[in-house]
Amino acid sequence: MALLSSERIVDTAKEIVRTEGHERLSVRGLARQLKVTAPAIYDHMESKDAVLRAVAAAGYDELRAGYSTTAGTSIERMRERAAAYVEFARNRPELFRLMFMFRPNAIAIEADNELGAATDVFEAGLDDVRQAIADGSLVDRDPIQITLTLWAAIHGVATVSIVAPPVADVVAADVIDAMFRGLRPD
């Protein structure tokens, strides 16, 4: 039997989230899957919330890996990353739902749900927006506000893609085109 580790706990928890949803994850059930006792889990993770945070962080890491692009312009990178975002949601809907229980630090609200991995993914988009503003491809406004606007739009498309996959690609392209048209400088 393999030694219990944080990585093994997260991998098993991620599989439970994928197949059953994060609502069904329990420390006892996780321990049963791993063939250990619940206290053994707590030797590596302080709580169920810590397990969920670690699974969400792993999901954000996967998403960020899917963001790699060779596109030449910031607008092209944003288009490719939007498509990757929608594809991620469609292929990993339960993990996607869990990930968005946690927020990047750019979304300042009174809640203890900030996650560094979410911030890293958000900042990849923010960097592209800043570059597009500098290039004159987007209106010169607060880049965080523009990034949040673009994210809200594509997040909506990603959510639709989970329940209506056939329309997601066309809708995503239309939404992104409309957003970029609306954010072009005068």
Could you walk me through the main structural features you see in this protein, from its secondary elements to its overall organization?
The protein has 186 residues and is mostly helical. It has 2 domains: 6-54, Arc Repressor Mutant, subunit A (Orthogonal Bundle); 57-182, Tetracycline Repressor, domain 2. It has helices at residues 6-20, 27-34, 38-42, 48-66, 74-91, 93-99, 116-135, 143-163, 165-182. The radius of gyration is 18 Å and the shape is elongated.
How are the SSEs placed, and which strands pair?
Elements: H1 6-20, H2 27-34, H3 38-42, H4 48-66, H5 74-91, H6 93-99, H7 116-135, H8 143-163, H9 165-182
Q: What is the domain total for the residues?
A: 2
- Run of helices and strands: HHHHHHHHH
The CATH architecture term of the largest domain is: Orthogonal Bundle
Helical fraction: over 70%
CATH level 3 topology of the largest domain: Tetracycline Repressor, domain 2
- Overall pLDDT metric: 90
Coarse structural class? mainly alpha
- Per DSSP, what share of the residues sits in E-state strands of 2 or more residues? under 5%
Task: Provide the CATH superfamily of the largest domain.
Answer: Tetracycline Repressor, domain 2
How many individual β-strands?
0
Name the poorly predicted regions.
Answer: none
Instruction: Profile the largest sheet.
Output: none
Name the features.
186 residues, mainly alpha, Arc Repressor Mutant, subunit A, Tetracycline Repressor, domain 2
